[in-house]
Write a structure and sequence with these properties.
single chain; 138 residues; alpha+beta; two-stranded antiparallel sheet; 26% helix; 17% strand
């Protein structure tokens, strides 16, 4: 979600993003050449049981000088955009490629592999877990 700029509880991940059986994706961008959590990102942890959410992070732009270009359908104008709507498809593509490369893997297998990969590469020093969750996948 993109509610990170809201106040208090309104900045938290909303239903269904904080459910156990999905993969919640947050976004990062670049500010002055440094990779940072996007300010618009909804934050974790998830609700009941304080599930570690979001699960993964990928590029979604930051704004200002770091944004994505999108072409609109009305007049085909170029628009400067940022958001988790851009980071989530990048993660989905990586997971899809993994399933294509290893067709014997089920969706649950891939989910488990990603969770374990992120856990093994987790560093509290490198990221704010309430924004970036467990981290990214390459």
């Amino acid at each position: 979600g993109n509610t990170g700029n809201e106040n208090g509880i309104m900045s938290r991940l909303q239903i269904p993003a904080d459910s156990v059986n999905n993969i919640a994706v947050s976004a990062y961008g670049y500010l002055e050449g440094k990779k940072i959590s996007a300010s618009y990102d909804s934050i974790g942890p998830g609700r009941e049981g304080n599930k570690m959410k979001p699960d993964l992070v990928d590029y979604g732009g930051y704004g200002g000088s770091d944004y994505l270009e999108a072409v609109g359908s009305y007049g085909y104008n170029s628009n400067e955009c940022v958001g988790t709507s851009f980071s989530a498809p990048l993660v989905t593509r990586k997971l899809g490629l993994l399933m294509w490369k290893y067709p014997s893997l089920s969706v649950l297998d891939v989910r488990a592999l990603v969770a374990h990969y992120a856990a093994l590469n987790f560093s509290v020093k490198e990221r704010n877990i309430f924004y970036d969750g467990k981290g990214g996948i390459k």
